[in-house]
Amino acid sequence: MSEAREFKHIGQRTIRPDGFDKVTGKANYGADLSLPGMIWGAILRSPHAHANITKLDVSRAEANPDVLAIATFEDFPSVNAAAQRDGTQRDGMMDTACNILANQKVLYHGHAVAAIAARSEAAAIAALDLIDIEYEVLRPVLSIDDAISAQAPILHETMMTQGLAEPATKASNISARMELKKGDIEAGFAAADVIVERAYDTPTVHQGYIEPHATTVVFNENGPSMIWCPTQGHFDVRARVAQLLNLELGQIKVVASEIGGGFGGKTTVYLEPVALILSRKSGRPVKMEMSRGDVFRASGPASASQSLIKVGAKMDGTITAMQATLHYEAGAFQGSPMGPGCMTVFTPYDVENLYVEGFDVVVNKPKVAAYRAPGAPQSEFAAEMAVNELAKKIGMDPIEFRLKNAAKEGTQTIYGPKLKVVGLEACLEAAKASPHYNAPIPENVGRGLAAGFWFNIGGQSSVIINLNPDGTGTIIEGSPDIGGSRASMQMMAAEILGVAPSSLNPIVADTEHVAYNQTTGGSRTTFATGMAVVEAAEDIVEQLKARAAAMWNVTAEQVDFKDGVAHNLTGEDQLTLADICASAEKTGGQISGRANINARGAGPSFAVHICDIKVDKETGKTDVVRYTAIQDAGKAIHPSYVEGQFQGGAVQGIGWALNEEYVYSKDGIMENAGFLDYRIPLASDLPEIEAIIVEVPNSFHPFGVRGVGETGIIPPLAAVGTAVAEAIGQPISSLPCSPPKILKLLMSAQ
Fold this sequence. Notes:
The protein is α+β, with helices and mostly antiparallel strands and 750 residues long. The chain folds into 3 domains: 39-138 and 211-260 and 266-298, Aldehyde oxidase/xanthine dehydrogenase, a/b hammerhead (Aldehyde Oxidoreductase, domain 3), CATH 3.90.1170.50; 305-456 and 603-748, Aldehyde oxidase/xanthine dehydrogenase, molybdopterin binding domain (Aldehyde Oxidoreductase, domain 4); 458-599, Aldehyde Oxidoreductase, domain 4, CATH 3.30.365.10. It is 29% helix and 24% strand. The chain is built from 22 helices and 26 strands. The strands form 6 sheets. It has a 7-stranded mixed beta sheet with strand order 3-5-1-12-9-10-11. It has a 5-stranded mixed beta sheet with strand order 7-15-14-13-8. Strand 20 and strand 21 form a beta hairpin. The protein is globular. 56% of the residues are buried.
């Protein structure tokens, strides 16, 4: 991709193949499947944030004629008491099982304890009251400061901190520590003329997907049991359920329904294994759905964080050292995105001396899950706020300051690889030249700018392309479509085969009909599954050339294939793709191409955002009056969906920065578990998000693709935070910038 290329289909704004069904209501989502004889499941959830279960008696519920099955933790044969006694406990599954159904102890408000399947949804919910349960209530741990204090209750008596210089000798609420370093941090700060050192914090926030978790399952003793659910990774659903229930992968088939939003929050399991237990016990299909309150209280939000950032620079703008101490809440079980946060915090900068220390901390909140670039928005918010303050102290324009220190080809990252060709400088130049940045700042408005980085991933993808006798075809892939990826697959295959995208029908197959695909996440799908589509299409091209050669009685090397037509290089003969397919039965049978790859070379993505915010100094209310999102897409396969990713990430980041946060009582009860009280931005809250696509091709992808799904949520937190700080003349260190916080800052300055 060193040279610009002209494409026939790549870069066009085609109609997405799933669009009609979605806008007409024909698309089938997680709760849309109903089966003959189906019954309903419901879950009993803890009213406490931290408590020992002293009694759990389901006998009254079992006696109810409407109740057909009950599930508890003991129904997980891979980790239950019997498995622990006989030494067959499956490694690495205890936390997952305990999060799905509590074992002896509840660890957050809404923690699932037991499940009931009954003849109707109402009967199942009513039967929950028949479960006799008693608790010994414990003091909850609700913040990082509380969790790491010497007096903190310990959530897990066997959890020892990993990653310490010396092995831990007693249990702690810190599950892990990591350290990354480059150069000599002390020498770097000694060389600095100006140093900024500040603490920042971000709240627990939710992905805000509109569709709640739901599943319908059928246990089959004599064949694969079927699980239907909205998921970002149905192969991983299959793996988790199989591990929990000691089943072989071939005993489970998972069908990915259409998905009403995920953003990382639908990469794990909550209902699916429970529903399969209930189906096995009852002999009936079982449907389960989460309420909106359940989604907030008991699915995986993003980590709250605390960051201590120290940045030093010379008066000429050269950054000499950057240091961070990052604490992430993991929720009730270990496993926050502390690692990616440490990897990304300073990566937009080419700096010789870096030091980052991260901590994974458990608290009495739901176990966190991924949320677009997990870990990076929190850490890069803190870093970018400090960088903006440092630029202001030195007296440099924030774009010029970043250009002087920008990561570029050859930059050694703190987490390992040297960067290949990347687009940060191009994004900064685009920001510098943008109408927004060159517009005057209105009165009573603050302007903020921030950069963001995400490394992107590749991974395993499998694709089959089947051609029909009339030259149309089907693309069978295994990556759930959460952002228009089916359209991109269509376009990439069409570009290789030289046919109209509409002649190829993209299908997300179940786990039985295509080989393994990793989860749709990490901004991998258009890159990695796209590479598999290209490889499968190229496989077909080689077959088409061989078939044409056989029909002309020449060698395949004497056939060229271009724009959907095979050309006989020894004469004037031509055959279209449809012509070759029509004669396929005479030349060896129908034509299929396939690819099973482990994609390498995912191109990192950088973004730069500009935000203008007006603050009402009497009420603390904020209004975003203008916003521009600039990002390197490598090559925008479908520009409309790339722009949509930029805009969607910006909107979610703006919500994170201005409004969104979990609110807990002192007892750990979530008090805003619904969209009325946990308020995400609406279209009426925001201006049009201006999107500028930068294209610095990724040489490792046939069309230059870089994943774009995650980087866009990273810059908004600091762009918004800086804009608010400029508008009110006070530093911002804590999100969200909600009216009460803004008013408090304004009053403290009087």
